[in-house]
Design goal:
Layout: H1 6-16, E1 25-31, H2 38-51, E2 56-59, E3 62-64, E4 67-69, E5 72-74, H3 76-84, H4 91-94, E6 97-99, H5 105-112, H6 118-129, E7 134-138, H7 153-160, E8 164-170, H8 174-187, E9 192-199, H9 207-217, E10 222-226, H10 250-253
Parallel strand pairs: 1-7, 1-8, 2-7, 3-6, 8-9, 9-10
Antiparallel strand pairs: 4-5
């Protein structure tokens, strides 16, 4: 696991813990499961807002799986968010809990003897709001992934209290997964601001019909359908999103 000392983490966050700019806004990005395109969509949102001249920063509060790059350990998802952001921030704000092994985060934490604290994540998010106009927080795995025996990612989302963007990985079974995730979001008093259809299985039968079913069933607008993109095309994902479909975001889209 890569974590700064608790003294450094707490002191840097304490200095930044002031009310966020009233004009700043953000969202929490979750998915119907792991590997369904959360990072791609989170990056696309950051790129889309950055094109409007806004200061943007991505956050992946819990990440698992690192690689050595020189003397540093990096996580692919975190690096993608950094590349899509227009504002850089300390690593302890961007990813407070970064685990070396690509395993379930609550198991990684248990092996390290660490209890992940949602308030550390909340304070880091508040700190980011001091530097950026837009903060995009990407969850880990699905909406209810456990962080400990008593806390899961949905609890963190509830404490952050940001509107939620749901990434639906298009494959057989996605309707059930999407509807159950929507119920979990609503049960925690959070609002689904929009959802994105992300092509996981490009040969999925009746893909358009599945999207139509979801559009009729989910209580939020479809922000876009992203086709299967190659590694060199992933930066184009922002072109498939229509942010104006979220009413409160329209103010920030006006010239």
């Amino acid at each position: 696991m890569t974590l700064p000392s608790s003294t450094v983490r707490e002191s840097s966050l304490a200095q930044a813990e002031k009310p966020a700019d009233a004009d700043a806004f953000g969202c929490f990005v979750t998915g119907t499961d792991t590997e369904k395109g959360k990072t791609q969509v989170s990056s696309a949102l950051l790129i889309a807002w950055g094109r409007r001249g806004l200061r943007t920063v991505g956050m992946k509060p819990v990440a698992a799986g690192t690689e050595h790059h020189g003397d540093s350990k990096v996580n692919e998802d975190v690096e993608c968010l950094k590349a899509a952001s227009t504002v850089q921030a300390p690593p302890e704000w961007v990813s407070p809990y970064l685990w070396d092994d690509p395993i379930a985060p609550h198991i990684a934490a248990r092996q390290a003897g660490v209890q992940m604290d949602p308030q550390v994540i909340v304070r880091a998010c508040r700190a980011l709001f001091q530097r950026a106009d837009v903060v995009v927080v990407e969850g880990v795995g699905g909406f209810c992934v456990p962080l400990s025996d008593s806390v899961n990612m949905a609890d963190v989302a509830r404490q952050l209290n940001l509107p939620v963007v749901l990434v639906v990985g298009l494959r057989l079974g996605c309707i059930n997964h999407a509807l159950l995730t929507n119920e979990a979001i609503a049960a925690r008093g959070l609002r689904l601001a929009g959802w994105v259809a992300n092509t996981v299985d490009q040969h999925m039968p009746y893909m358009a019909e599945n999207i139509a079913t979801l559009a009729a069933a989910l209580p939020a607008p479809l922000l876009g359908h992203i086709p299967r993109l190659g590694s060199r095309e992933k930066h184009e994902a922002a072109d498939y999103l229509d942010l104006s479909l979220v009413p409160e975001w329209r103010t920030y889209l006006s010239d």
